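To the wet lab folks,

You asked to see what we're planning to order before we commit. Fair enough. Below is the target structure as tokens, and below that is the sequence we designed to fit it. If anything looks off to you, flag it before the synthesis order goes out.
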């Protein structure tokens, strides 16, 4: 399973959408999750991967660092941080 699929989980996955549309949908879902809980590590990892895919490397690193700080035992957060 790819990092992207592991980060966003089944409830955030969209089928039959273009890559750019899927990025928009995932970013929106992550933003909604972060409004409910600004420390949601899966949402932080998800938005980090969206930022990375969008070429926003500094934002990606910031979100990955935030995910690691709130969930240091979450392997995926560390792997995401290493993707820069």
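Sequence we intend to order:
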């Amino acid at each position: 399973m790819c990092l992207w699929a592991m980060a966003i989980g089944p409830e955030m996955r969209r089928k039959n959408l273009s890559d750019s549309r899927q990025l928009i949908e995932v970013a929106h879902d992550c933003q909604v999750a972060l409004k409910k809980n600004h420390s949601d590590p899966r949402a932080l990892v998800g938005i980090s991967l969206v930022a990375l895919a969008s070429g926003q490397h500094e934002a990606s690193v910031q979100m990955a660092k935030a995910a690691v700080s709130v969930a240091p035992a979450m392997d995926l957060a560390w792997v995401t941080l290493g993707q820069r």
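Structural context that might help your review: The mean pLDDT is 84. Residues 53 and 64 are 13 Å apart (CA to CA).

Thanks,
Computational group
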